[in-house]
Amino acid sequence: MTSDEELLTAWRAGDRAAGDSLLARHFDAVCRFFYYKVGEEAAADLIQQTFLAMCEGKERFRGESAFRTYVLGTARLVLLAHLRRKRRDADHLDPIEHSLAGFGPSPTSALAHRREEAILLQALRELPIDLQIAFELYHLEGATAGELARMYGLSEPGMYGRLRKARLLVVAACERLAETPALRASTVDRLDDWVRELSARGLPKRD
To answer: By C-alpha distance, which of 140, 152, 114, 132 is closest to 28?
Structure first.
């Protein structure tokens, strides 16, 4: 398979088909990124904005992380801009303090096939936005702590600290949200299984 770096080099040299192939390779990851945060309806425009930004900024990628991490880092900036537009006090949106739970009910219930998955998605939504993004990119999309550290401008140990904090908060939220002891045990004890299920999940089909 042609690598991302080879496709990017060809795209920069004027090969539009290589660019189409490169963006198509990461389309599902970008869709998951937005679907799990704003739902399918709102995601469509944000997905388009992200890929437009990638087309306009393809020369700026310096290869310091995997190309997919760069794509999802761009998606993060698009998401934060979208959330700031939705807030009256846009300048005061702090992604390390505010969560998506403050933007209304979760739109992601249709993505869950099991109650445990719905609990996990709600727990993620209660994390501070940047912790949610870091957790999802690390566990669902396979980004490394080093790549995330560069994306956030942190040291690698600092990024591991954020990931540990995110997991502890997810577990605590799952324990609180589960309605019965059996469901609590099933959700928390098999947390990594539910994460893998969501990572492998096909995206909703459009009518």
So the answer is: 140
pTM of the model: 0.86
Give domain limits for the chain: 4-200
Residue 11: CB atoms within 10 A of its CB come to: 20
Q: What angle do CA 10, 16, 22 make, to 5 degrees?
A: 65
* Separation CA 176–CA 184 (nearest Å): 8
Q: What is the pLDDT of residues 158-201, one digit of tens each?
A: 999 999 999 999 999 999 999 999 999 999 999 999 998 888 76
Residue 4 near residue 22 (C-beta atoms within 8 A): yes
Bin 60: left if φ > 0, else alpha if -120 < ψ < 50, else beta: alpha
- Residue 90 per-residue DSSP state: G
What is the pLDDT at residue 199? 81
Find out whether 7 and 179 touch, Cβ atoms under 8 Å: no
Token digits of residue 127: 């994390």
Q: What pLDDT does residue 206 have? A: 47
